[in-house]
Amino acid sequence: MSATFNKVMLLGRVSIPPQLKSSTGGTTICTFSIAINRRYRASDGSYRETADFLELSVFGKTADHCASYLKKGSAVFVEGHLKQESWQDKETGQNRHRLSLVADRVHFVDGTAPIAEAGQIAIDPEVSQALRQSAYTPRSAAQSMLQPPPMPPSPPPNYGNDVPY
Prior knowledge:
Blueprint: E1 8-22, E2 28-41, E3 47-59, H1 60-69, E4 75-88, E5 95-108, E6 121-122, H2 125-133
Parallel strand pairs: 3-5, 5-6
Antiparallel strand pairs: 1-2, 1-4, 2-3, 4-5
């Protein structure tokens, strides 16, 4: 038996405000985009930043809460999975494919929403506090939204065989 795993965890800020829709079966669907900053070292040694913008979908009560409480700029931590979508283009008749992101849980990092009954939306005080105190703190609007994590500390010196490290 082969094992598979499909889990995505993202921390970012809402870039396109949530839009709430209903399916023909009555399920609520909320779609919105988040921006995720990435810092990398260029070939000249300088640090550069870029942003990735990802669209995602949320269903049910989670969708209702996202539509009610999220707005552009809100910080969110999303847990979800990837889903392959396929359809036939009506104009050209060609088969089209797209990889989409479905959010299973949405944590409001800003702490502006209530905890949902089903536990799908959470203001986790520990996560929120840890993110605020970590290197992932908001900077001014002119700069990027997230800072890279700090460098790990160097190991303590080894002064001999009698001190285990």
